[in-house]
Target: Integrase
Amino acid sequence: MADGSIFKRCSCRDDTGKYLGDGKCPQLRIPVIENDQPKIGATGEPEWRWSPEHGKWWARYSAPPVNGRRRQPRIGPFDKETHAKKALRQVLADLDSGTVVSHDPNMTVRQYLRKVWLPGKKKLEESTRESYEEAIDLYFDPGIGHIKLVRLNEDHLNKLYEAISQINNLPPGEQPSELLRRLLAARALAPWRHERPGKSPGLNRKLPLTPARIRRIHAVISSALGTAFKQKRIGHDPSKHVELPEVKPTKPVVWTQERVERWRATGKIPHKVMVWTPEQAGRFLDACERHEPRLYPMYHLVATRGLRRGEAAGAMLADLQLGAGILDLIEGLEDDDTGLKTERSTRTVSLGDVNKALLRKWVARQKEERLAAGERWQDSGRLFTRPDGSAYGREEYFSERFAALVKLADLPPIRFHDLRHCAATMMLAAGVDMKYVSAELGHARHSFTADVYASVLPDVAQAAANATVSIIPRTTNR
Model:
């Protein structure tokens, strides 16, 4: 059975500048006091314990020898003794089960992400690869890139996310940490929104990163470390036990006539997440049918069934069952909200008669384009394609065309993703059961659906208010 131990170490040096060594700094140990006196152990020497105020926690374990040489790798640092013990238990369990690290123990996080993991992701869409590269360039490389992969732990990631949350959000008078300085230096060299023509939007220079954004950043390192664990490059995956900021859902606000008039007068959008009324959604679909017939079936599907942008872009022709009136959403590209992260998100969507008819016409048109293209046809397998059969390389294209159509229809602005909110709102307004709406949207909990979308449309809320008053018997005129 593998064995190991935990200890504390610091960076203190002696008068000559020489490092004192693991556990040798006198400030690391304090005497055990019993009856106001130092306790003497069985050996006749004073007993001691680790100081809670000085140094960091580390773990050391006996690893299988390499070329006949004994190895005792260290794991750390950790802020808490419990974290060090937990990491040590995991490593020892992996050693006993045969799950041992079998790769270069000196490889850094930077080397792994840039030279091993990302080059190994052969099937990434362009926009997804861009987002991965951005996360590495701005956060993981400057933040934890210098750390050896096998020594990366939960504390490293927790401190990284704490620093990320302080970007454009540092309290007045507080000095940035060295970690935050490295992140800010990386951002200073990054291209901003106006410097990325034809590509996905760049960074926003002034706004803090939202909890949802931090979770999406974490998803990148979680994927990378999951791969490293499967390949036995690391003995445990620290991304599974970090503390991530809570994401509070934002309730949509409807574009009422009063809000539209105020927006036209001031140019100010009243809320982060806005949704259209059914009448406004109808005007958008009419404009889309007239001016963007190629994308009309896709926009209609999103606006009525609540697909995410990544789901629409990644939908496969083979997963469309027109006879049954369903679409299986198996593959999704990078999403602009939370992405495909749960089993429930990989789901089956019921189409309804109108969507079935639109998609049947679209599939027939796609077949005609395939015959016309001949050898030039690119068989991407996607449901929604360009005239040559190729996939839309950038999901942002859908958002860009959407924004142009909104302007053309003279409608108040919403984001492409807000079409999903529109679909949810209108399903509930139509009297569809909350649990069914939750399942159609791919939400893990129907309580989340209820919290976000309840009583959004004014007409529905007014009808509920009137219905409540109407059942109360009164003897006087009201």
Remarks:
- The mean pLDDT is 83.
- The CA atoms of residues 1 and 169 lie 48 Å apart.
- The chain has three domains: 4-97, 109-241, 253-316+330-339+393-465.
